[in-house]
Amino acid sequence: MQSATIGMTAIRAPSPYCRCGVLKTEDNCGVRNLKTGRSFQPACLACRAKRLRRYRLQNPANALWSAAKNRATRAGLSFDLTVEDIVIPDVCPVFGIPLIWAGGGRTDNTPSVDRQIPTLGYVRGNIVVISWRANRLKNDASPDELQRLAAYTLHLSTEPKCPTSQ
Is the pTM for the entire model greater than 0.85? Predict the structure, then answer.
């Protein structure tokens, strides 16, 4: 390993190997410095993915904030939230089911940032954390459509069932 001395401090050149022992290449290391053509990533893609998953598991509000910021940027929506604005309740305020953070992948119980008035974007006072299921159900529906769906579902549950063939 090469090293250089600046003043009294020795600076080591980055290792060509990841901590897991894999030789870092452009394919498995991803980012390269355009001026020098050398990689400055400390780990291979697989190790960085593991580290990111561990970080998301330990910091759910940060992960939800980051995802919301990315969605706002892609959709051209307003965004003025801080991580402190992302308050994850123990249970979904819509369905009363426990919210369970798994750090990736979505289940019905996964916390999800909901924009109460979608056109306002991700701004303070316009977001609430609800379950992925509740957010998915209200995704494109208007309040009138949701009421009609509820009425239809209630109607189906109170009508007699079809007689079975014998």
Answer: no
